[in-house]
Amino acid sequence: MADAAPRLQGLFTQLLGAPLPVRIRAWDGSQSGPPGAPTLVVRNRRALRRLLWKPGELGLARAWVAGDLDIEGDLYATLDLLAGLIWERGDDARTLAQALRDPEVRAAVRGLVKLAGPPLPPAPPREEARSPRRHLHTKRTDRRAISHHYDVGNDFYEIVLGPSMVYSCAYWPAPDSTLEEAQRDKLELVCRKLGLRPGLRLLDVGCGWGSMAIHAAREHGVRVVGVTLSQEQAAYARKRVADAGLTDKVEIRVQDYRDVRDGPYDAISSIGMAEHVGAEQYLEYAADLYDLLKPGGRLLNHQIARRPQGDETTYSVDAFIDSYVFPDGELQPIGATVAQLERAGFEVRDVEAIREHYALTLRRWVERLEADWQRAVQLAGPGRARVWRLYMAASALAFERNRIGVNQVLAVRTRESGTSDLPLRARTWN
Hints:
- This protein is an alpha/beta fold and 430 residues long.
- The protein has helices spanning 4-16, 46-53, 57-66, 75-87, 93-99, 103-116, 139-150, 154-161, 179-194, 211-220, 231-243, 282-292, 319-325, 334-343, 355-371, 373-380, 382-400; strands at residues 23-25, 31-32, 39-42, 69-72, 201-205, 223-228, 250-254, 265-271, 293-306, 347-353, 404-412.
- Strands 7-6-5-8-9-11-10 form a 7-stranded mixed sheet.
- Helix 2 packs across helix 6 and helix 16 packs across helix 17 (382-400).
Protein backbone atom coordinates (compact mmCIF):
# COMPACT_ATOMS: atom_id res chain seq x y z
CA MET A 1 0.00 0.00 0.00
CA ALA A 2 1.36 3.44 -0.98
CA ASP A 3 1.13 5.43 2.24
CA ALA A 4 4.45 7.28 2.61
CA ALA A 5 2.94 10.76 2.05
CA PRO A 6 0.21 10.58 4.73
CA ARG A 7 2.71 9.06 7.13
CA LEU A 8 5.11 11.92 6.45
CA GLN A 9 2.34 14.48 6.93
CA GLY A 10 1.56 12.98 10.32
CA LEU A 11 5.20 12.75 11.38
CA PHE A 12 6.02 16.32 10.32
CA THR A 13 2.94 17.57 12.15
CA GLN A 14 4.22 15.91 15.32
CA LEU A 15 7.76 17.22 14.83
CA LEU A 16 6.79 20.79 13.95
CA GLY A 17 3.80 21.12 16.23
CA ALA A 18 1.57 22.24 13.35
CA PRO A 19 0.33 20.72 10.10
CA LEU A 20 2.36 21.33 6.97
CA PRO A 21 0.59 23.97 4.85
CA VAL A 22 1.67 22.20 1.63
CA ARG A 23 0.88 18.89 -0.01
CA ILE A 24 3.40 16.06 -0.01
CA ARG A 25 3.98 13.63 -2.85
CA ALA A 26 6.25 10.77 -1.88
CA TRP A 27 8.47 8.38 -3.83
CA ASP A 28 5.76 5.70 -3.80
CA GLY A 29 3.27 7.97 -5.61
CA SER A 30 1.13 8.67 -2.56
CA GLN A 31 -0.07 12.22 -1.83
CA SER A 32 -1.40 13.99 1.23
CA GLY A 33 -2.14 17.51 2.37
CA PRO A 34 -4.34 20.52 1.61
CA PRO A 35 -5.97 20.27 -1.86
CA GLY A 36 -4.75 22.92 -4.27
CA ALA A 37 -1.71 23.81 -2.17
CA PRO A 38 1.83 23.76 -3.62
CA THR A 39 3.39 20.31 -3.51
CA LEU A 40 6.58 19.28 -1.76
CA VAL A 41 7.95 16.33 -3.73
CA VAL A 42 9.96 13.84 -1.67
CA ARG A 43 11.68 11.86 -4.41
CA ASN A 44 13.32 9.20 -2.28
CA ARG A 45 14.02 8.02 1.24
CA ARG A 46 17.47 9.61 1.10
CA ALA A 47 15.79 12.99 1.63
CA LEU A 48 14.60 11.78 5.03
CA ARG A 49 18.04 10.49 5.95
CA ARG A 50 19.49 13.91 5.14
CA LEU A 51 16.98 15.52 7.52
CA LEU A 52 17.72 13.00 10.25
CA TRP A 53 21.48 13.45 10.07
CA LYS A 54 21.29 17.25 9.71
CA PRO A 55 17.94 18.39 11.14
CA GLY A 56 16.86 21.83 10.09
CA GLU A 57 17.99 24.08 7.30
CA LEU A 58 21.20 22.32 6.29
CA GLY A 59 19.49 18.96 5.88
CA LEU A 60 16.75 20.55 3.79
CA ALA A 61 19.35 22.38 1.71
CA ARG A 62 21.28 19.21 1.02
CA ALA A 63 18.11 17.40 -0.04
CA TRP A 64 17.13 20.29 -2.33
CA VAL A 65 20.56 20.67 -3.96
CA ALA A 66 20.85 16.90 -4.53
CA GLY A 67 17.40 16.78 -6.11
CA ASP A 68 15.95 14.57 -3.36
CA LEU A 69 13.37 17.29 -2.66
CA ASP A 70 11.52 19.44 -5.18
CA ILE A 71 8.62 21.87 -5.29
CA GLU A 72 5.74 21.84 -7.73
CA GLY A 73 3.69 25.02 -7.91
CA ASP A 74 4.59 28.57 -6.98
CA LEU A 75 8.11 28.51 -5.51
CA TYR A 76 7.66 31.85 -3.70
CA ALA A 77 4.33 30.83 -2.18
CA THR A 78 5.79 27.53 -0.99
CA LEU A 79 8.82 29.15 0.63
CA ASP A 80 6.57 31.74 2.26
CA LEU A 81 4.30 29.03 3.68
CA LEU A 82 7.20 26.99 5.02
CA ALA A 83 9.30 29.86 6.37
CA GLY A 84 7.59 30.20 9.73
CA LEU A 85 7.51 26.45 10.35
CA ILE A 86 11.04 25.58 9.30
CA TRP A 87 13.51 28.33 8.42
CA GLU A 88 12.54 30.75 11.19
CA ARG A 89 12.28 28.21 14.00
CA GLY A 90 16.01 27.81 14.61
CA ASP A 91 17.86 24.52 14.35
CA ASP A 92 20.73 24.84 16.79
CA ALA A 93 21.60 22.11 19.26
CA ARG A 94 19.71 23.70 22.17
CA THR A 95 16.50 24.03 20.15
CA LEU A 96 16.69 20.41 19.06
CA ALA A 97 17.48 19.16 22.56
CA GLN A 98 14.46 20.99 23.96
CA ALA A 99 12.20 19.57 21.25
CA LEU A 100 13.37 16.01 21.91
CA ARG A 101 12.18 16.24 25.52
CA ASP A 102 8.64 15.94 24.17
CA PRO A 103 7.60 12.24 24.02
CA GLU A 104 5.52 12.89 20.87
CA VAL A 105 8.53 14.41 19.12
CA ARG A 106 10.73 11.47 20.09
CA ALA A 107 8.06 9.11 18.77
CA ALA A 108 7.88 11.04 15.50
CA VAL A 109 11.66 10.88 15.11
CA ARG A 110 11.55 7.10 15.62
CA GLY A 111 8.83 6.89 12.98
CA LEU A 112 10.90 8.96 10.59
CA VAL A 113 13.95 6.75 11.18
CA LYS A 114 11.88 3.67 10.37
CA LEU A 115 10.50 5.24 7.20
CA ALA A 116 13.90 6.55 6.07
CA GLY A 117 15.48 3.13 5.62
CA PRO A 118 19.15 2.22 6.22
CA PRO A 119 20.57 4.75 8.73
CA LEU A 120 23.69 5.64 6.75
CA PRO A 121 24.49 9.36 6.37
CA PRO A 122 24.30 10.43 2.71
CA ALA A 123 27.34 12.26 1.42
CA PRO A 124 26.82 16.04 1.10
CA PRO A 125 26.31 17.32 -2.46
CA ARG A 126 29.57 18.26 -4.15
CA GLU A 127 28.38 21.89 -4.37
CA GLU A 128 28.70 22.27 -0.59
CA ALA A 129 31.59 24.42 0.60
CA ARG A 130 33.61 22.72 3.31
CA SER A 131 35.34 25.75 4.72
CA PRO A 132 36.15 25.53 8.46
CA ARG A 133 34.97 28.57 10.36
CA ARG A 134 38.04 28.69 12.62
CA HIS A 135 40.14 31.04 10.49
CA LEU A 136 37.75 33.37 8.71
CA HIS A 137 38.68 36.18 6.36
CA THR A 138 42.35 35.58 5.92
CA LYS A 139 43.43 36.47 2.41
CA ARG A 140 43.60 32.77 1.55
CA THR A 141 40.15 31.86 2.88
CA ASP A 142 38.59 34.94 1.27
CA ARG A 143 40.04 33.94 -2.12
CA ARG A 144 38.60 30.45 -1.69
CA ALA A 145 35.18 31.77 -0.66
CA ILE A 146 35.02 34.24 -3.55
CA SER A 147 36.07 31.55 -6.01
CA HIS A 148 33.33 29.23 -4.73
CA HIS A 149 30.68 31.82 -5.50
CA TYR A 150 31.94 33.72 -8.51
CA ASP A 151 34.00 31.21 -10.47
CA VAL A 152 30.88 29.30 -11.49
CA GLY A 153 31.22 30.27 -15.13
CA ASN A 154 30.68 33.61 -16.81
CA ASP A 155 28.20 32.06 -19.26
CA PHE A 156 26.01 31.01 -16.33
CA TYR A 157 26.05 34.50 -14.87
CA GLU A 158 25.16 35.96 -18.27
CA ILE A 159 21.94 33.93 -18.13
CA VAL A 160 21.04 35.22 -14.67
CA LEU A 161 22.25 38.82 -14.83
CA GLY A 162 21.62 39.70 -18.45
CA PRO A 163 23.66 42.13 -20.58
CA SER A 164 24.37 44.52 -17.70
CA MET A 165 26.39 41.85 -15.83
CA VAL A 166 25.77 43.65 -12.55
CA TYR A 167 25.42 41.35 -9.55
CA SER A 168 23.95 43.74 -6.99
CA CYS A 169 20.67 45.50 -6.28
CA ALA A 170 19.35 47.52 -9.20
CA TYR A 171 17.66 50.92 -8.79
CA TRP A 172 14.21 50.77 -10.36
CA PRO A 173 12.57 53.86 -11.87
CA ALA A 174 9.35 51.81 -12.04
CA PRO A 175 8.46 48.16 -11.30
CA ASP A 176 7.90 47.46 -15.01
CA SER A 177 11.25 48.90 -16.12
CA THR A 178 13.76 46.57 -17.68
CA LEU A 179 16.55 45.04 -15.61
CA GLU A 180 19.11 46.78 -17.83
CA GLU A 181 17.48 50.19 -17.25
CA ALA A 182 17.43 49.63 -13.50
CA GLN A 183 21.07 48.53 -13.34
CA ARG A 184 22.17 51.47 -15.47
CA ASP A 185 20.28 53.81 -13.12
CA LYS A 186 22.00 52.19 -10.12
CA LEU A 187 25.48 52.70 -11.61
CA GLU A 188 24.62 56.27 -12.50
CA LEU A 189 23.29 56.92 -8.99
CA VAL A 190 26.57 55.68 -7.49
CA CYS A 191 28.56 57.90 -9.84
CA ARG A 192 26.49 60.96 -8.95
CA LYS A 193 26.76 60.31 -5.22
CA LEU A 194 30.53 60.06 -5.61
CA GLY A 195 30.62 63.32 -7.60
CA LEU A 196 32.63 61.75 -10.40
CA ARG A 197 33.99 64.02 -13.14
CA PRO A 198 36.78 63.89 -15.71
CA GLY A 199 40.26 63.60 -14.27
CA LEU A 200 39.27 61.98 -10.96
CA ARG A 201 40.57 58.59 -9.90
CA LEU A 202 38.14 55.88 -8.71
CA LEU A 203 38.84 52.61 -6.89
CA ASP A 204 36.07 50.03 -7.40
CA VAL A 205 36.41 47.42 -4.65
CA GLY A 206 34.93 44.08 -5.66
CA CYS A 207 34.58 45.20 -9.27
CA GLY A 208 32.82 42.06 -10.50
CA TRP A 209 32.60 41.86 -14.28
CA GLY A 210 33.65 45.49 -14.69
CA SER A 211 30.26 47.17 -15.17
CA MET A 212 30.78 49.99 -12.65
CA ALA A 213 34.32 50.65 -13.86
CA ILE A 214 33.21 50.82 -17.50
CA HIS A 215 30.22 53.05 -16.76
CA ALA A 216 32.25 55.47 -14.64
CA ALA A 217 35.03 55.75 -17.22
CA ARG A 218 32.75 56.02 -20.26
CA GLU A 219 30.06 58.30 -18.82
CA HIS A 220 32.08 60.41 -16.37
CA GLY A 221 35.63 60.39 -17.75
CA VAL A 222 37.33 59.06 -14.62
CA ARG A 223 40.32 56.74 -14.40
CA VAL A 224 39.38 53.52 -12.63
CA VAL A 225 41.17 50.69 -10.84
CA GLY A 226 38.88 47.72 -10.25
CA VAL A 227 39.92 44.89 -7.92
CA THR A 228 38.43 41.42 -7.57
CA LEU A 229 39.57 38.08 -6.14
CA SER A 230 37.91 36.12 -8.94
CA GLN A 231 40.11 35.12 -11.86
CA GLU A 232 37.08 34.48 -14.08
CA GLN A 233 35.56 37.86 -13.31
CA ALA A 234 38.83 39.64 -14.01
CA ALA A 235 39.34 37.96 -17.39
CA TYR A 236 35.79 38.78 -18.42
CA ALA A 237 36.04 42.38 -17.20
CA ARG A 238 39.32 42.99 -19.03
CA LYS A 239 37.79 41.81 -22.30
CA ARG A 240 34.79 44.09 -21.80
CA VAL A 241 37.10 47.02 -21.07
CA ALA A 242 39.09 46.32 -24.24
CA ASP A 243 35.93 45.93 -26.33
CA ALA A 244 34.71 49.30 -25.00
CA GLY A 245 38.03 50.96 -25.97
CA LEU A 246 38.73 51.97 -22.39
CA THR A 247 42.06 50.28 -21.65
CA ASP A 248 43.65 53.72 -21.19
CA LYS A 249 41.15 54.55 -18.44
CA VAL A 250 40.34 51.24 -16.69
CA GLU A 251 42.67 48.74 -15.03
CA ILE A 252 41.27 45.47 -13.67
CA ARG A 253 43.36 43.64 -11.07
CA VAL A 254 43.11 40.32 -9.26
CA GLN A 255 43.95 41.82 -5.90
CA ASP A 256 42.75 41.87 -2.31
CA TYR A 257 41.61 45.32 -1.21
CA ARG A 258 44.05 45.00 1.68
CA ASP A 259 46.91 44.93 -0.81
CA VAL A 260 45.99 48.10 -2.70
CA ARG A 261 48.82 50.53 -1.99
CA ASP A 262 48.69 53.05 -4.85
CA GLY A 263 46.36 55.61 -3.31
CA PRO A 264 45.22 58.19 -2.77
CA TYR A 265 42.00 57.95 -4.77
CA ASP A 266 39.41 60.67 -5.21
CA ALA A 267 36.53 58.22 -4.72
CA ILE A 268 35.87 54.59 -3.81
CA SER A 269 32.88 52.45 -4.71
CA SER A 270 32.20 49.22 -2.85
CA ILE A 271 29.03 47.66 -4.27
CA GLY A 272 27.88 44.35 -2.81
CA MET A 273 31.36 43.46 -1.59
CA ALA A 274 31.38 44.36 2.12
CA GLU A 275 29.13 41.37 2.99
CA HIS A 276 32.24 39.24 2.45
CA VAL A 277 34.40 41.20 4.89
CA GLY A 278 33.15 39.80 8.22
CA ALA A 279 32.25 41.62 11.43
CA GLU A 280 35.64 41.19 13.09
CA GLN A 281 37.49 42.58 10.07
CA TYR A 282 35.05 45.38 9.23
CA LEU A 283 36.90 48.13 11.07
CA GLU A 284 40.10 47.15 9.24
CA TYR A 285 38.18 47.27 5.94
CA ALA A 286 36.82 50.73 6.72
CA ALA A 287 40.22 52.00 7.87
CA ASP A 288 41.95 50.67 4.74
CA LEU A 289 39.47 52.47 2.49
CA TYR A 290 39.77 55.64 4.56
CA ASP A 291 43.56 55.59 4.13
CA LEU A 292 43.20 55.10 0.36
CA LEU A 293 41.08 58.25 -0.04
CA LYS A 294 42.27 61.81 -0.50
CA PRO A 295 40.97 64.39 1.99
CA GLY A 296 37.58 65.38 0.62
CA GLY A 297 37.22 61.99 -1.06
CA ARG A 298 33.98 60.02 -0.95
CA LEU A 299 33.14 56.38 -0.29
CA LEU A 300 29.91 54.80 -1.54
CA ASN A 301 29.34 51.59 0.41
CA HIS A 302 26.41 49.54 -0.96
CA GLN A 303 25.72 46.63 1.40
CA ILE A 304 23.06 44.15 2.51
CA ALA A 305 22.04 44.49 6.17
CA ARG A 306 20.17 42.21 8.56
CA ARG A 307 17.76 43.22 11.28
CA PRO A 308 19.37 43.76 14.71
CA GLN A 309 18.83 41.13 17.38
CA GLY A 310 18.07 41.64 21.04
CA ASP A 311 21.16 39.63 21.90
CA GLU A 312 23.73 40.07 19.14
CA THR A 313 25.87 37.25 20.54
CA THR A 314 23.25 34.77 19.34
CA TYR A 315 23.67 35.75 15.68
CA SER A 316 24.65 32.86 13.47
CA VAL A 317 25.25 32.70 9.75
CA ASP A 318 22.46 31.14 7.69
CA ALA A 319 23.44 27.49 7.16
CA PHE A 320 22.26 27.25 3.55
CA ILE A 321 23.88 30.53 2.48
CA ASP A 322 27.13 29.69 4.27
CA SER A 323 27.40 26.20 2.82
CA TYR A 324 26.21 26.76 -0.72
CA VAL A 325 26.13 30.44 -1.65
CA PHE A 326 28.47 32.84 0.16
CA PRO A 327 30.89 30.84 2.34
CA ASP A 328 32.05 32.90 5.31
CA GLY A 329 29.74 35.79 4.42
CA GLU A 330 28.30 37.81 7.29
CA LEU A 331 25.60 40.43 7.56
CA GLN A 332 25.39 43.15 10.18
CA PRO A 333 22.77 45.79 11.02
CA ILE A 334 23.06 49.14 9.25
CA GLY A 335 23.74 50.82 12.59
CA ALA A 336 26.85 48.69 13.10
CA THR A 337 28.10 49.53 9.61
CA VAL A 338 27.65 53.27 10.14
CA ALA A 339 29.33 53.09 13.55
CA GLN A 340 32.40 51.30 12.20
CA LEU A 341 32.77 53.65 9.26
CA GLU A 342 32.72 56.53 11.71
CA ARG A 343 35.23 54.80 13.99
CA ALA A 344 37.56 54.54 11.00
CA GLY A 345 37.39 58.33 10.59
CA PHE A 346 34.65 58.78 7.99
CA GLU A 347 31.83 61.27 8.27
CA VAL A 348 28.66 59.48 7.18
CA ARG A 349 26.61 61.94 5.14
CA ASP A 350 23.77 59.91 3.68
CA VAL A 351 22.07 56.54 4.09
CA GLU A 352 19.56 55.42 1.47
CA ALA A 353 17.57 52.24 2.08
CA ILE A 354 16.60 50.50 -1.17
CA ARG A 355 15.27 47.20 0.19
CA GLU A 356 12.28 46.93 -2.17
CA HIS A 357 14.59 47.44 -5.14
CA TYR A 358 16.50 44.27 -4.30
CA ALA A 359 13.32 42.20 -4.15
CA LEU A 360 12.46 43.37 -7.68
CA THR A 361 16.01 42.62 -8.85
CA LEU A 362 16.04 39.10 -7.45
CA ARG A 363 12.68 38.22 -8.96
CA ARG A 364 13.99 39.30 -12.38
CA TRP A 365 17.10 37.16 -11.91
CA VAL A 366 14.93 34.16 -11.02
CA GLU A 367 12.80 34.78 -14.12
CA ARG A 368 15.88 34.79 -16.31
CA LEU A 369 17.24 31.61 -14.74
CA GLU A 370 13.95 29.75 -15.07
CA ALA A 371 13.47 30.91 -18.67
CA ASP A 372 16.79 29.36 -19.71
CA TRP A 373 16.86 26.54 -17.16
CA GLN A 374 18.17 23.72 -19.35
CA ARG A 375 21.13 25.75 -20.57
CA ALA A 376 21.89 26.90 -17.01
CA VAL A 377 21.94 23.26 -15.91
CA GLN A 378 24.26 22.36 -18.77
CA LEU A 379 26.65 25.17 -17.86
CA ALA A 380 26.74 24.93 -14.07
CA GLY A 381 25.27 21.51 -13.29
CA PRO A 382 21.84 20.73 -11.83
CA GLY A 383 22.96 21.17 -8.21
CA ARG A 384 24.44 24.61 -8.73
CA ALA A 385 21.44 25.79 -10.74
CA ARG A 386 19.14 24.60 -7.95
CA VAL A 387 21.24 26.48 -5.38
CA TRP A 388 20.90 29.73 -7.27
CA ARG A 389 17.16 29.33 -7.88
CA LEU A 390 16.44 28.66 -4.21
CA TYR A 391 18.70 31.31 -2.76
CA MET A 392 17.50 34.07 -5.08
CA ALA A 393 13.81 33.26 -4.56
CA ALA A 394 14.19 32.97 -0.78
CA SER A 395 16.22 36.19 -0.70
CA ALA A 396 13.52 38.04 -2.66
CA LEU A 397 11.00 37.05 0.01
CA ALA A 398 13.41 38.06 2.79
CA PHE A 399 13.73 41.56 1.33
CA GLU A 400 9.97 41.83 0.79
CA ARG A 401 9.24 40.75 4.38
CA ASN A 402 11.87 43.14 5.83
CA ARG A 403 13.97 40.34 7.24
CA ILE A 404 16.98 41.83 5.45
CA GLY A 405 17.61 45.16 3.72
CA VAL A 406 20.17 46.90 1.56
CA ASN A 407 21.60 50.37 1.98
CA GLN A 408 23.81 52.82 0.17
CA VAL A 409 25.99 54.70 2.65
CA LEU A 410 27.81 57.79 1.44
CA ALA A 411 30.78 58.66 3.65
CA VAL A 412 33.45 61.33 3.32
CA ARG A 413 37.04 61.68 4.44
CA THR A 414 36.71 65.31 5.50
CA ARG A 415 39.57 67.75 5.23
CA GLU A 416 41.49 68.83 8.35
CA SER A 417 39.39 71.99 8.41
CA GLY A 418 36.26 69.83 8.60
CA THR A 419 35.18 70.66 5.05
CA SER A 420 33.28 67.85 3.34
CA ASP A 421 33.24 69.30 -0.21
CA LEU A 422 29.58 68.28 -0.47
CA PRO A 423 26.92 70.75 -1.61
CA LEU A 424 24.53 72.20 0.95
CA ARG A 425 21.72 70.15 -0.55
CA ALA A 426 23.58 66.90 -0.86
CA ARG A 427 20.85 64.87 -2.51
CA THR A 428 21.38 66.76 -5.75
CA TRP A 429 24.54 64.57 -5.96
CA ASN A 430 26.85 66.84 -7.84
